[in-house]
Every structure is written in structure tokens, then in C-alpha cells.
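Give me the fold.
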Amino acid sequence: MGAARHYDVAIIGAGHNGLVCAAYLAAAGLKVVVLERRGVAGGAAVTEAFHPGFRNSVAAYTVSLLNPKVIADLQLHRHGLKIVHRKAANFLPLEGDYLIIAEGRTQAEVAKFSTADAARLPEYEQRLEAVADLLREIVLKTPPNLAEGGWVAAIPEMLKSVSLAQRLGGVSLQAKRDLLDLFSKSAGDWLDGWFESDPIKALFGFDSIVGNYASPYSPGSAYGLLHHVFGEVNGKKGAWGHAIGGMGAITQAMAASCRERGAEIRLNAPVCELIVERGRAAGVALETGEAVRARAVVSNLNPKLLFGRLAPQDALPADFRERITRYRCGSGTFRMNLALSELPRFSCLPEPGDHLTAGIYIGPSLAYMDRAYTDARAFGWSREPAIEMLIPSTLDDNLAPPGAHVASLFCQHVAPELPGGESWDARRESVADLMIATVDKWAPGFSASVIARQSLSPLDLEREFGLVGGDIMHGALGLDQLFSARPVLGHGDYRTPVPGLYQCGAGTHPGGGVTGAPGHNAAHEIIKDFKRKRLKVA
């Protein structure tokens, strides 16, 4: 092993949370290095050319959950970040009709299908927003940690619990009941209790299956409705937008903030092993043979990769090891990037318009999405998949040549692992054909407009971006894997069973999405440990 370099903190992975963590740690005066396996920083939030003249956000693809405090603290706008609103939020094509969610017109749109649903819509939005406000308050807070130790060690965690209880005590009983429902019920049951028309339930219910290998009628899927509305764009709560230059513009701004603060980012530096000495994390070994020594090591990886591949197994308690093996990953996602010669023309609304800037949902009912999941469980992929399509070039004309466009297809459901041990490498292109043909049913001629495509199966997403089972959330967002229990109860505070080893990725609270919150929270816990002399500055 080659000569070691010494740092205060070594961060494994330059995904957006790793970069956020590095920026805060470097601002605190620590000597930080970020080690990235790929040749570009950003993890799954990157913009890359996938065909000559065409660029797109190749994995993560839209903006809302990125926390405003992170944007401000890292001064991302000063480093070039610009986010614009979609002109319409969502578009649901139907046979002979459509539903559009857009400011000032949503109620009238819903009334086309049900005047009763249109009347209920303001109350639904108000009550969902009330619970989302609670979530916004805790996303940048470290969860109470049920750790072993005496009463002295328990005091800080008790104070966190008391603070949380006081905040919950201040909300109405109705909001508490809604909170319980959204964490435990299925999205279908929740929406069926509110609305009668299929289109509005389908449009809202789509959020429950995004990155979730489940039916909208699976218990716990209602949380997806909440997880996707706690964000904001340019101060507008619940809005969705596009980063000019794609998702890579976010992470490049983060990387610039890191470097300005003195953090070092090393690309093409794959880590192969966590170095543990005298029971503590002491650094990492690279595949080149180089050792990078550090007082603290922070992982931005999926917990299954960190504890299953990098950490010495004898450094982990047996019960913890066992629970990590059962940590649930696999989001049923098939991701495509398309180069288009022209905009699609949907049968229900053929002319170009604001609806093409929206999240376009192909999945006309909750029953359709339920069948998609059942089909994927039985056959490996749904023969009638649910698809979200975005056309970011309608908002950002630098992504494609003049007159041409790029589209993102986020496709559900496909099995993380195919039945019978068949490889996704053998089925990728035939499933990609199916996804394009599915869009073509709703927008005839779409398939003929496809100049080129990039197809990413769950296996490709795992190999390229470390998304185990194609899981964009770094672990299912079930009640058993949220808050203090993410990834394992007793280690919800970003610390791990190995002293000096921390986690900062989406496998920790508050979970997946391009939020920056796990990186923010982990950095603050690490800084506390340096101040308390639990870690010594190099």
C-alpha cells in the first residue's frame, strides 16, 4: 500500500450529499477530502451528453426537495445555480381528455371530472400542507437516537424527543390523525377517502410509486405523497422546477462551493476498503493501493454498499450486520434519456403548450398502477408500465440542438432482479422498446421522433451510480426505515457502530431525493464530535 495522505475527514462519494457535507465541514476549518469513483462529481445528480449535441440529467431529473437553507449556506446561486419553475406542474393524458395541475386552473380542471372533488381540493391541499410543514421542520434535525449507554448519554436524545413532542403537541388533533394516516396507510386508501374521480386520484397517487417498488394500495405508500410535497422552488412551497443546465448544475455549484472553502475533491478515486485500527475508523484504501488516513470517515454510499462491501465484517456487531442484510432496497425503476427530433403530440392535447413543461404522467388510474406492480412481480416488468416523462428542453434550450428536444422517462414498474436469475443486460433493450411504445400509445408518432436513447435498467443504475437494485432513495421509505430507524434503529444520528465512521447519504434521515439534508445534518454531528474532542483535528 502506498504512502498515506492525512486529513481530518475523508468522504466516500461525491454525490450531492457528500458535497454538502464536505462544504459544511470545510467551512468549519477541517481538512476535507472527497473521494469519487467516477470521473465527475455529482453522483446520480449529473448532466451528461448521451448523444452528440444532446445533454440531459441522466439519473436524478427534477428539482423541488433541495433545501433552501443548503442553497443559501453554500451560496449555490452565486456559484451559477439557476432554477426555473415548470409552467404547469403535472399533465395526465387520458382517452379523449386530460387533467392539468397548474397555478390558477387546477380546480377548474378537476371539476371536468367531479365538481365534488373540485370542492374538496382546497381542504385536501391545506391538510396535506399542514403535515408537510411538520416534515419541513424535522428534515434538518438529527433524529432522537435510541443508543446503548447510561442515563448521561441518553440526556441529549431525551431532549430531542421532548422538543419533537412539544412541536407535535402544538398541532391540531386533525393534523396528528392525518400524520398517522400518511405514515401508515396506502396512498389508494388515503385518496379514495378524499376523492371520487379516477384522474385526480391517479395524478396525486403517482407520487406514491415514484422510486417505490409497490402498489399505490400497499400499506405505507401514502408517505410518498408527503415526501414529494415538502420541497419548494424559489420560495414557493410544493413547487417543482428545472435547474438550468440540468441536475449537474446543482452539484457543480456544490463542488465549486466545496473547493472555495478548501475541500479537496478527487475524481477517479474508487475506495475499496475502510481502514479500521484499534476499533476505530482510521481512513480508507483506494483501489490503486493508496491509503488515505483521516480522523473521521464519512460515507455517502447506500448502507448496503458501505457495510456489505467496504467495512470489515468483524468491526460490526452481529445484530447490526444481520439487519443491514435485510435493509430493503429496490425501487422498481427503469430510467431512459431520449434525443427527440420534435415535441410529442398527445392525442388528447396535440398542440405544443405549457403542459409539455410539466411532469407528464402515463398511468390513468390507481388500478392501472396496481396492475403495473402486480405484473412486474410476476413477469419482471410491467407490460403496461407507469411512466413519468419530462421534456426539460422546453425550459432549457441549451440541452439540445435548435428545434430538437431531450426527454427523461422515469418508468415504473420493473423488478430489481428478474425472475429465474435472468440478467437485465439481456432484457434492457426490449424493455426500453416497450417504454417508448407505451408513450406512443398516448402520443402517436413519438417513437418515430426518437433519434437516440440511453437506457438504464436497475442493474445499470446500481453499477453506474451505486443505486442498489436501482433504488433512487438508497432504501425504501417505509415506516421501519424512516427517521430514527434509518438505516437501523440505534444509528439514526449519522454515526455508525464503528467509532469515527459516519453516514451522510440518502440512506439516513430524511431519505431520498436531491435534498442536501442528510449531508447538512451529518456535517453538524461530525462538527459536534470534533468540538467535544471525540475526534481530534489532524
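Residues 440 and 447 are 6 Å apart (CA to CA).
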